[in-house]
Write a structure and sequence with these properties.
By secondary structure, the chain is α/β, with parallel strands linked by helices. It is built from 8 helices and 6 strands. It binds magnesium ion. The site of magnesium ion has 6 residues, from loops.
Length: about 180
């Protein structure tokens, strides 16, 4: 099977590191973190400084390495499909390299990394690459991908969404689910 996997907040703890860095930044410039995140200019200023640090140092979620390794050993292909792009902020133009280095540093082997995919595009990418099942934490992507007839698991480990079905909260359950649906 060809398995599509989102990156931020699906295999790594992006929200947590953003919160940590925004705390530091807000202390340094004497502002409230919420006021920074609610203001487009201030938010861009923050990400200009911290985006590379965030993507370089973000932590992997629990069990991701082992589950992806086992899935690959069983002949599945892992395609990372992410909205990360070189146009998020002008200061970060080497998104592929940052992401690739991070995967290697964290011992995560994959078959492909596809950038700049969100919403419609992510669903299109899944179709173009003939993804059998996609795993993503964003309900918008989940709906778009599902509406294209592609199997998608909504990953929700922080109880953010009220969807009763079709979501899983950890990587061991994702592994079991994929095994059952081979
Ligand atoms: Mg995500």
């Amino acid at each position: 099977m060809r398995i599509g996997v989102d990156l931020d907040d699906t295999i790594c703890r992006t929200t947590e590191i953003v919160h940590d860095r925004i705390e530091k930044y807000s202390e340094a410039i004497h502002m409230n973190p919420l006021d920074i995140m609610n203001d487009e200019m201030l938010k861009e200023g923050f990400f200009r400084i911290y985006l590379e640090d965030i993507y370089t140092n973000v932590e992997v979620k629990r069990n991701v390495q082992n589950v992806l390794k086992r899935l690959r050993n069983k002949g599945n292909e892992i395609y990372i499909i992410t909205a990360r792009s070189n146009s998020t902020v002008p200061t970060v133009k080497n998104m592929f390299q940052i992401t690739d280095d991070w995967l290697k540093k964290n011992d995560i082997e994959v078959d492909a990394v596809i950038l700049s995919a969100y919403g419609e595009t992510k669903a299109d990418v899944c179709k173009r690459y003939e993804i059998d099942i996609m795993i993503d934490d964003d309900p918008y992507n989940y709906k778009k991908i599902t509406s294209e007839g592609i199997h998608c698991i909504l990953f929700d480990d922080r109880e953010r969404y009220n969807l009763k079905n079709d979501y899983l909260t950890n990587w061991l359950d994702i592994e079991k689910y994929i095994e059952r649906n081979r």
